[in-house]
Design goal:
single chain, mainly alpha, 7 helices, 54% helix, 6% strand
Length: 197
Amino acid sequence: MRIEKCYFCSCPIYPGHGMVFVRNDCKLFRFCRSKCRKLFNQKKNPRKTRWTKAFRKSAGKELQYDSTMEFEKKRNRPVRYNRELMSNTIKAIQRIKEIRQRREARHHAKRMRGNKQRQREAEIKEINQNIDIIISPLANDPTKVAVPSLVKSRIAARIAENNAKMSDSPVVTQSTKSQTQKKQKKSKVSEDVQMAQ
């Protein structure tokens, strides 16, 4: 059983799957799905299409040059069947697969090194810029929560602003409203009485 590779995205094509395009010069192009065939017909470059293996390898996101890839090359040499040779080949394939997985994991870890630190710095920067959105009710009471000094100072400044706004605007309660309305009615009634006299 031969597992082919898609010409566009390098996905495996199992027997009975995919489609083949034969060009006038008899070159075969195998595609795993119609999406790859259509992009090939549109003359799209797989190295510029972000989801293909070709792009990932050229961008350094996947292991590109490795000795384990030499075993994947297609060889059209006829070999006489030998049971021992076949069993050794299958064992070698499994061993090569393990080695390749380890190397890919190492490559990924190396590529992602320092990424957590950068992400953490970006999150801290965003929090510092939008600290006003995050203030919780407990943050106003420094005895209940251990709040960093920067946050404490910003909270104190905001509370002071709110207090200043509250003191500047006259506080009108419901009872004072009703009292003023009653006084206005009485004054209107007294004016009407005076005019009538």
